[in-house]
Amino acid sequence: MRQPQQPTERFVERRNRLRQSLQERTAFIVSAAFEKIRNEDAHFLFRQNSSFFYLTGFDEPEALFVFRPWMSPEAVMFVREKNLERETWDGFRFGPDLAKKAFAMDECYLTTQIDEKLPELIADCEQIYFSLQDNFARQTQILEAVEKARLTRGRTSPVMASVMDPRSILAEMRLIKSPEEQELQRKACHVTALGHRAAMQAVQPGWNERQLQGIFQYAFAMNQCPVMGYNPIIGGGENATILHYNFNDQVLNKGDLVLCDVGAEWNFFSGDITRTFPVSGKFSAAQKDLYQAVLDVQKWVITQCKPGTRQAALQKMTIEKITDALLQLKLLRGDKEEIIEKQGYRRYYMHGVSHWLGMDVHDLGTFSVNGEERAHAPGMCLTVEPGIYIRTDDELAPKELRGLGVRIEDDILITENGCEVMTSAAPKEVAEIESLMAEDFDPKAYFPK
């Protein structure tokens, strides 16, 4: 029998917190993910819906969680049947009886009972939360259950409200990480940093980008992170100027930079580091100038990550610093304020400096609350990732900078007095990178300690 991946008490505590955010006569419904076909009869590796796992700890497809605060039963889950024949082919299934006990549910039913039981469970509810971005068949199933429940209510009963998006509540819960969640996030960041160190040591001119991707996969798997938090970006040369480059199939040439945006996932929490380093182990003068300009911006922005700083202000600060760098590098000319007003910097810097980080690499959470900019608070995790990208065909740029792309990204935890850089084990100073790359790659160095 498989055991729950994390202590069940953690999920019960989250459900207790969820209860405090809901009114009576509410049904809070979250669907598990469904398996997806990759090609013909082969499936993609299953990955659970983050919010479903956040509240249940259950890692099987097709399930449905229904939470009804202060009602009985309160926590209800629908799961696949216990089927020994299918388990012979696909692996262990909990089934309703084991799932009820292992995941501290008040009641568990079969997924084949959703059409029958769900209308009964929500019949007395006046508010329904369910994300309409879920699987279309599941959407239809939930909406039909809502309609069936409405039909069972008398004309004098309170009107059932429209279906509301649960992410507004889940985002607030997931935005502030508990001490236990912070440890999971640190572990994901630590393993991610190991992967970047291994990549710097192992890379060789003439390698394919895929081979470098394989080094990350090796370091992650050896530290029990078998999957990545997102599709990796391994962009050599001019491919580093493509923000979401995913082909990862070109040759890494001597003298080029390679941009690696790669993160490991540990127990559903994702790391997210970007490092840019020279394939040959040494930065050229032009590469160093560009790299140092981005690094100076990144390090300064990190100093501003502390309680009270607002996300919108962080972006504004970054734009000002990046514009200064672009002027110094002679990528832009003219008046700084006019460039910012007309967004001239977007020719070389066109994305946000930060996003929330957690169970999803771009984690739930808004940058504003009730129309006001959100301020950083202890327990929030975010990235800091400025960059400068210069197309090969950019005739306005100095020739020595054309085709260069640099992004530097770290993962930040806001603390009571400032911030913690959770990814500091991945070198980013020029001298540190060149020193590490001068060392021989030892695969055993990345075995877990």
Summarize the structure.
This protein is of the alpha+beta class and 449 residues long.
Explain how this protein is built.
This protein has 449 residues and is α+β, with helices and mostly antiparallel strands. Helices cover 35% and strands 16% of the residues. The strands form seven sheets. Strands 6-5-4-1-7-8 form a six-stranded mixed beta sheet, with helices on both faces. It has a three-stranded antiparallel beta sheet with strand order 9-10-13, covered by helices on one side. A three-stranded antiparallel beta sheet has the order 16-19-20. Helix 8 (179-202) packs across helix 9. It is globular, with a radius of gyration of 25 Å. The chain starts with 7 loop residues before the first helix and ends in a 12-residue tail after the last helix.
Write the CATH fold name of the largest domain. Answer: Creatine Amidinohydrolase
Q: Which overall shape is indicated by the principal axes computed on the Cα atoms?
A: globular
Number of helices: 13
CATH architecture classification of the largest domain: Alpha-Beta Complex
**Beta-strand fraction estimate:** 15-25%
Poorly predicted regions: none
Structural class: alpha+beta
**N- to C-terminal separation?**
28 Å
Assigned CATH superfamily of the largest domain: Creatinase/methionine aminopeptidase superfamily
- Give the total of beta strands: 20
Biggest sheet strand line-up: 6-5-4-1-7-8
Domain count: the total is 2
CATH class of the largest domain: Alpha Beta
> Roughly what percent helix?
25-40%
Q: On the 0-100 scale, what is the average pLDDT? A: 96
- Major sheet summary line: 6 strands, mixed
Global Rg:
25 Å
